[in-house]
Structure formats: structure tokens, C-alpha cells
Write a structure and sequence with these properties.
- The complex is a heterodimer of chains A (488) and B (346).
- With 488 residues, chain A is of the alpha+beta class.
- Chain A is 57% helix and 11% strand.
- Chain A has eleven helices and twelve strands.
- In chain A, helix 2 packs antiparallel against helix 4, helix 2 runs parallel beside helix 6 and helix 4 runs antiparallel to helix 6.
- The mean pLDDT of chain A is 85.
- Chain B has 346 residues and is mostly helical.
- In chain B, the strands form two sheets. In chain B, strands 1-2 form a two-stranded antiparallel sheet.
- In chain B, strand 3 and strand 4 form a beta hairpin.
- About 14% of the residues of chain B have low confidence.
- Classes of the chains: A alpha+beta (488), B mainly alpha (346).
- At the A-B interface, helix 2, helix 3, helix 6, helix 9 and helix 10 of A face helix 1, helix 2 and strand 3 of B.
């Protein structure tokens, strides 16, 4: 009879534990990264008494979380992938906005206006007012080249700043993981329940894999390791390998800009690992910085350089719009007059190099200071000669870029087209990877997520078992009473 | 059977809602801007094409301006030539009348006054201006082309304007060919830049452009007034000399001299008529080109609109449909949310 009481007691305890777990599940239904838990129970060791085998009730062996580590890994990888495309799309959208000319004018229209103002000047080469219009349009061209270049540079700098914050984030996350590793190891040494801590660790790793693609493994000593794919170990058991952010000079920088941000392991600033990271938001931003923006910058510089030089090459051949002293045969007596040179004048300042040509573009001092220095005539003292102005306006349709392949406009449009395509592709990839991520999340939540309905049903079930077990004890109690009452 | 958990249900719901709302937002943006694209990535190819069209349309606008400008020039030139022809015809009529012995010396004296007046008229036409520009002085548009004795100070510069892409027309006739003698010039210029010194191509290696010495082209600033031999020749041939000779012939009462001038008047008049024909044909081609450009503009505007502008009917029907979709999504989620087994366990 004491057996019966005991069996009832184990049933009561097991049901209570199951109900507790159900409560824990319901309480955490909305906790991020929580995996539902399940009570593992088994029959108690049976005993043999007077030749019969007796059951001795139920025993709780543990509370486990329902978890599939392969799904978890897939979720991590899809998170990295999605973050990569999402962040790439976000960054490229900012870049393409620079070249958005759908509703307002951009470089293409400004350049077009510049060339057309030279056509206007060709109509009336004597006209001072049109010369000032030409100069104003040249100013707009300069401003727009500057705008594009400085905005691109600004985006690069912004990415540098976000990299610095990201490195801080990574360091914090890996510290968190290391701490969790230590706690889990300690608890497991005492055979404690570690499901909740493991959930937290998975959550931290998932957060980390938003930034970089992560690989985790347990080594032969049972240490839990976290490594960034393409770079190396970040966490070994309770130890972290922190990252540091620093800036590089123009010679070592990976994007051709002075003071560009680089990432390296603490204490090893000479070996930057910036470009080693794979997927995640970090590699997306560095890739945009080191490839897309860098290429665009070089492209715009090339366009500015070729534009400046082709305009100058023609403009230099012209004569100023002033009375020039000539000799008998009509040649100028001197190549200078009181207002400066009469021919060979550059319209734009000669760029020192292709690099930064779009940033440093400016009108020459001669053109800035005196409108009559804008040359239209191919022969001196010919106020109506418009051949230089015509030739400059024809640069618009001259295929001289890329070794005679394209006009300035075609080259620029190609650049814009490429930006649009890249950005569109990234948006499409982002949308697709978001779908995949949603699917994997769904799979994970189906396995590990809490279902209130299920818990409710379980609650009813466990409650009934609890009641029944209590009844068993009551019965045992009554049986005791019956036996005791015999004596009366 | 697949398990459904609270979170998986929530995640799929969120995904579906997000997608529906995203589409709606996109359509709403299109409906608000009435553009089928708002950023290059919406349709990179169309974006580039529309940019190309924009600059081509701007170019065309400029070409129309150029065309109008050319027309004004050509019309003034044609009118001047017309007046000049009238003057010469008048002078010729007088010369014919005076070439016989019918009139006496006094009459001839009086007629000579009239002819010298005609000469002054011719000179004023020769120095005609549009705004500040002299139309008969070649490139030297700010310099008075003819002095009072009829010497030419302009050059033989041929000003051309681009009235359509790569289509250049001359808009002036230099004073030399009008008043002095016929010069070889065709009415169509392939391009004034054909003889332009080779453009320096930009060099990728960043090397500097060498400074080439530029020789002013000699054949342009060319009427060499300094050469006395030249001057004498022109004196005989040019319109002012013709009128001068007539005046002096009449003053000196020499009908033979007047008679000898008649043929020269005919050559001069026929030369002017040839020039007028030339100007007329240029005017014609400019007008044709301009109307071509205008119809091209309409085509391009239509093409651009089809690329950039949204199809309003399509957008709004899509918008309504998408709103329905969203409403249905809300309704279907309503059934799932806020209801659990617990509501039915009593």
C-alpha cells in the first residue's frame, strides 16, 4: 500500500513538472529565439517482490528543448544571405539616387545644356550675354561633377563609420557568446538544465550572422567555437578574439581613398581582414565601398578628365573675342595683349591627373576673369567666326571615350545603366532571399516554436493526469483508513 | 502532419502582410507620381533610353532655335539681294536710255545724280546690319564691310549653323561674292569641321596635351586690299565700280562708255539672281529640316512618355485590386489571431 502511495506521488510530481514546463512554454511563447521544452519521462525501475514484477511509477529524466541544429544552421546562413542583399540593396539605392534624373536634371542634362549653350554662342558669337550663359552653364557642369563625386565620397565615409560601429557590435556579441559558453559549461558540469541558455546562445549567434557569415563547431574537447567564414575564429569556449577598426593611408586602403576604414584582429593592424568577411551586412557594405562606389568614382573622374581635355583641346585653337593686333598677312603680332593671351587659352583648368578630376574640375582663370576669353573664332579678329564654338558643341556627339567607342553621354549613360542594373539586381536578390529566410524561419518555428493550442491541450491532459494521480493517493489513503479501522 | 506554432503562424502572416503592403506602396507611389519608375533601378534600360531621349529632345529644341536664327539671317540676306537687284535693274534701264544719242548733256548730268543716289543706296544695303552684326562682312561681323569708296574690308568667311544633327547650312554670303565677283561656294556644307584641325583625343595615361602652334588659316582672311593690282581688277568688276563708271560716263557725256557697261550690268544682275536662288534653296532646306525636327520631337515625346509615364488605367485598376488583396489578407488573419483552443475550453 505504501507502494501505491509512492506511485501516486511520482505521478503527481511528473504531472506537476509537465504542467510547469507547459507554463514555461506558454510564458515564453513570444520570447525571441525560445525553443519549446518537453519533459522527458520514463517508468521507474521495477522491483521484484514475491516472484512478481511490480512497476514503481514514473520518473522525470530531463527537460529538453525541441531543436534541430541543421535547421538552425540553415537559418543562420539564410540570415547572412538576406542581410547581405538587403544591405547591398539599401546602399546601392543611395548610390543610384545620385544618378536619378527621372524628375530632375542631373549631369547628363547639365552637359547637354553646356553643349547647347555653345550652339547658341555659335549663332551669335559676337554676343557677350551668351558668353556669360556659356560660363554659367559651365559652372553648373562643374557643380554637378562635384556633387556626384562628393556624394560618392560621403557614402564611402558613411560606410567607414558604420564599419566602426559594426566592429563594436561584433565584439559585444562574441563576448556575450563566450559568457554563455562559460555558463553552459558550468551548468552542464552540475547536470543542470541548459536549454534556455542554449537558446540565448543561438540567438546571439543568429544576431552575429546578420553581420557576417558564421560557422560553429564543437571541438574534440567539447569546446564550442564560433568562426567568421573567410576570416577565422572569433570565440573559443569562454575566450574571444576581438576585432579592431582602424584607418589606412591612401596607399594601403582598399578603396583608393585616404583614411579608409579597415578591420583587423586586435594587435595585428598590419594584416587587414576587411575583405575576408563573407555575406552578412558587413561584407555587403565593404563590397559596395570597395567595388561599386570605387568604380563609379573612377568612371566619373574619367568622364570629367576626357571632357575637360577635349573641350580644352579645341578651345585652345580659338582666338579671343577682342581686337587683336595683326601684321600684314593677318597673323597676330603677339600672342599676348593687355588682357592676357589671345589664343591657346584653356577653358577648364588642366587636371593634374585622372584621379579626382571630377572633384577638382574648375574653369581656367582666364575664362573666369574675362568673358572675351571664351573663344569662338578660328582666325583672329573674326567676331562672326563660330567654328570653335561649333566644334566644341560637336564634342557632344564625338566618340572619343574608351578608345573611340563612345561619346561622353553614352559613357555616362552606361555608368548610370550599370548602377541601375546592380541596384535592381540587389533588390531582386533581397526580395528572393527574404522569401527563403521566411521559409526557413517558418520551418524552424514549426519545430521549435510554441503552439498555444498544443500547450492548452497538454495542460488539460496533464491536469487530468495530476487529478488522477491525486485520486490514486486518495485511494491509498482510504485503503490505509480501512485497514486501520479493522481494529476498532 | 506539419506542426504549426504560434511563431510560425505569426511569421507567415507577417510575410504575407508585408508583401501585400509593399506592393500597395509601390503602386501608390506610381499613382502619386504618375511615373512608371521613380528610380533608375525600377527599369534601368528604360531609364537610360529616356535620358537619351531627353538630351536628344533638348538638342532638337536648340536646333529649332538655330534654324529660326538661320532663317532670319537668310531672309534679311534675300531681301537685301532683292533690293540690290532692283537697284541694278533701275540703273540698267537708265543706262539703256542714256546709251543712245537721244539725250543731251544736261539730261545726262541730271541722270548721273540719280545713279549716284542709287550707288549710295547700294552702299547702305552693302553695310546692312542685323542688330550689331554686318551681314556682308564674312567673319568680321563687327567691322563695316564697305567704305564710302566701295572697298571691301570683310573676309570670305562662311558662317555655318547646325540646324539638325550634323547638318550645317551657311547663313551668310560674304560681301565679296555679292558685290565683287562670283566665288565658288556650294549651298550645302557637309560640315564646317571637316577641315578643322584634328581634335586631340584624351589620353588615358594622363600625359599632357602638347601645345601645337596654330597657324591662322590664310585662305580665309583673304581679300587683299593692300595689293594694288587686285584693287584695279575689282574696280572693273564690282557693283560699286559699275555704278561709278556709269556716273562718270554720264557726267562726261560719253554714251559709248555707258553702252559698254550694259553687258556688265547683265552679268551682275544674273549673279545676284543666282545668289538669291542659292539663298532661297538654303531657306527651303532649313524649313524642311525644322518641320522634320518638330515631327521627330512628337515621336520622341511619345516614346519617352511610354517609357517614363505610368499607364494610369492600369495603375489604378492594379491599385484597387491590391487594396482588395490586402483587405482579404486582414480578414483571413483576423480569424487566426486572438483565437486559441483556450477560448473553447470551459
Amino acid at each position: 500500500m505504501s507502494d501505491l502511495l509512492n506511485i501516486g506521488r511520482t505521478g503527481l510530481a511528473a504531472s506537476k513538472k509537465a504542467l510547469e514546463t507547459t507554463g514555461h512554454n506558454i510564458a515564453n511563447a513570444n520570447t525571441d529565439g525560445y525553443s519549446r521544452q518537453k519533459v522527458q519521462q520514463t517508468t521507474n525501475v521495477p522491483i521484484t517482490k514475491s516472484g512478481l514484477i511490480h512497476g514503481t511509477g514514473v520518473r522525470v529524466t530531463g527537460v529538453n528543448r525541441v531543436h534541430d541544429q541543421f535547421v538552425e544552421k540553415r537559418l543562420r546562413d539564410s540570415t547572412s544571405e538576406n542581410e547581405y542583399f538587403q544591405s547591398r540593396a539599401d546602399n546601392l539605392r543611395q548610390v543610384e539616387e545620385i544618378f536619378n534624373e527621372i524628375d530632375n536634371g542631373g549631369l547628363n542634362q547639365v552637359l547637354n545644356r553646356f553643349f547647347n549653350s555653345f550652339r547658341d554662342l555659335a549663332n551669335q558669337p559676337e554676343n557677350e550675354t551668351i558668353r556669360s550663359v556659356v560660363r554659367d552653364n559651365a559652372k553648373l557642369v562643374i557643380k554637378d561633377f562635384n556633387r556626384i563625386r562628393t556624394t560618392l565620397d560621403q557614402l564611402s565615409r558613411n560606410i567607414d563609420n558604420s564599419m566602426e560601429r559594426t566592429v563594436g557590435d561584433i565584439n559585444q556579441k562574441i563576448k556575450e557568446i563566450a559568457t554563455l559558453n562559460r555558463k553552459i559549461a558550468e551548468l552542464e558540469a552540475m547536470h543542470g538544465e541548459t536549454g534556455d541558455l542554449r537558446d540565448q546562445r543561438d540567438l546571439a549567434i543568429k544576431a552575429l550572422s546578420k553581420i557576417v557569415k558564421i560557422h560553429t563547431y564543437e571541438d574534440e574537447k567539447g569546446n564550442f567555437n564560433v568562426a567568421a567564414k573567410g576570416v577565422g575564429t572569433l570565440v573559443t569556449a569562454a575566450n574571444v578574439v576581438p576585432l579592431r577598426f582602424g584607418t589606412q593611408g591612401i596607399d594601403q586602403s582598399s578603396n583608393g581613398m585616404d583614411g579608409s576604414g579597415e578591420i583587423f584582429y586586435e594587435g595585428r593592424p598590419s594584416t587587414p581582414i576587411t575583405s575576408g568577411f563573407m555575406k552578412g551586412s558587413l561584407s555587403a557594405t565593404t563590397e559596395v565601398r570597395n567595388k561599386d562606389i570605387k568604380n563609379l568614382r573612377e568612371n566619373i573622374d574619367q568622364i570629367a578628365y576626357d571632357f575637360i581635355n577635349s573641350v580644352n583641346a579645341i578651345h585652345k585653337r580659338g582666338y579671343v573675342n577682342r581686337e587683336i593686333q595683326t601684321d600684314e598677312s593677318g597673323n597676330p603680332v603677339s600672342s599676348f595683349d593687355a588682357q592676357g593671351p589671345v589664343t591657346g587659352i584653356n577653358f577648364f583648368k588642366i587636371p593634374t591627373s585622372i584621379k579626382n578630376a571630377a572633384l577638382n574640375i574648375d574653369m581656367s582663370d582666364d575664362v573666369k576673369s574675362d568673358l572675351s576669353n571664351i573663344a569662338t573664332a578660328l582666325s583672329p579678329n573674326s567676331s562672326g567666326d563660330n567654328r570653335v564654338a561649333l566644334a566644341i558643341s560637336k564634342i557632344q556627339h564625338e566618340r572619343f571615350m574608351e578608345g573611340g567607342q563612345s561619346t561622353i553621354e553614352e559613357n555616362f549613360l552606361k555608368t548610370v545603366g550599370k548602377v541601375g542594373l546592380e541596384s535592381g539586381k540587389a533588390q531582386l536578390d533581397a526580395e528572393q532571399s527574404e522569401g527563403i529566410l521566411a521559409q526557413v524561419t517558418n520551418v524552424k518555428e514549426r519545430i521549435s516554436g510554441v503552439s498555444i493550442d498544443e500547450e492548452a491541450a497538454n495542460m488539460v491532459k496533464f491536469q487530468h493526469v495530476y487529478e488522477a494521480a491525486a485520486k490514486v493517493m486518495q485511494t491509498a489513503d482510504e485503503m490505509f483508513k480501512t485497514v486501520i479501522n479493522i481494529k476498532r | 502532419m506539419t506542426r504549426v506554432s504560434e511563431n510560425s503562424q505569426h511569421a507567415s502572416m507577417q510575410f504575407a502582410l508585408n508583401k501585400a503592403k509593399n506592393r500597395l506602396e509601390n503602386l501608390q507611389l506610381k499613382g502619386a507620381t504618375l511615373r512608371s519608375m521613380t528610380k533608375p533601378s525600377d527599369n534601368p534600360v528604360s531609364n537610360v533610353e529616356s535620358m537619351q531621349l531627353t538630351s536628344s529632345m533638348n538638342d532638337n529644341k536648340q536646333y529649332v532655335r538655330n534654324g529660326n536664327f538661320a532663317l532670319m539671317h537668310l531672309n534679311v540676306t534675300e531681301k537685301s539681294l532683292d533690293e540690290l537687284t532692283n537697284i541694278l535693274t533701275k540703273a540698267k534701264e537708265l543706262a539703256i536710255a542714256q546709251s543712245s544719242d537721244f539725250y543731251n548733256e544736261d539730261v545726262r548730268k541730271n541722270v548721273s545724280k540719280e545713279v549716284s543716289q542709287l550707288r549710295n543706296l547700294a552702299l547702305s544695303i552693302a553695310n546692312k546690319r542685323i542688330g550689331q552684326k554686318y551681314i556682308f562682312s564674312g567673319y568680321k561681323t563687327l567691322k563695316q564691310p564697305f567704305d564710302s569708296s566701295g572697298n571691301y574690308h570683310g573676309d570670305k568667311g562662311n558662317i555655318t549653323l547646325e540646324v539638325a544633327k550634323d547638318f550645317f547650312v551657311p547663313v551668310n554670303i560674304d560681301g565679296h561674292s555679292v558685290f565683287f565677283s562670283e566665288t565658288e561656294s556650294s549651298s550645302y556644307e557637309p560640315s564646317p569641321l571637316k577641315n578643322f584641325p584634328q581634335m586631340n583625343k584624351s589620353r588615358p595615361d594622363g600625359e599632357q596635351f602638347e601645345d601645337t602652334e596654330i597657324e591662322p588659316s590664310r585662305d580665309l582672311a583673304s581679300v587683299d586690299e593692300a595689293n594694288p593690282a587686285n584693287q584695279g581688277y575689282e574696280k572693273r568688276e564690282n557693283i560699286f565700280a559699275l555704278l561709278d563708271n556709269l556716273v562718270s560716263g554720264l557726267e562726261n557725256n560719253e554714251p559709248k562708255v555707258v553702252q559698254g557697261l550694259l553687258e556688265k550690268f547683265d552679268t551682275a544682275i544674273s549673279r545676284l539672281i543666282t545668289l538669291r536662288t542659292k539663298v532661297g534653296s538654303i531657306t527651303n532646306s532649313v524649313e524642311t529640316t525644322m518641320s522634320n525636327i518638330e515631327s521627330e520631337n512628337i515621336d520622341q515625346a511619345a516614346r519617352k512618355s511610354s517609357l517614363v509615364d505610368a499607364d494610369i488605367a492600369e495603375i489604378f485598376s492594379d491599385l484597387t485590386r491590391q487594396q482588395e488583396v490586402l483587405k482579404t489578407t486582414y480578414k483571413s488573419t483576423q480569424g487566426m489571431l486572438n483565437q486559441t483552443l483556450l477560448d473553447f475550453l470551459r
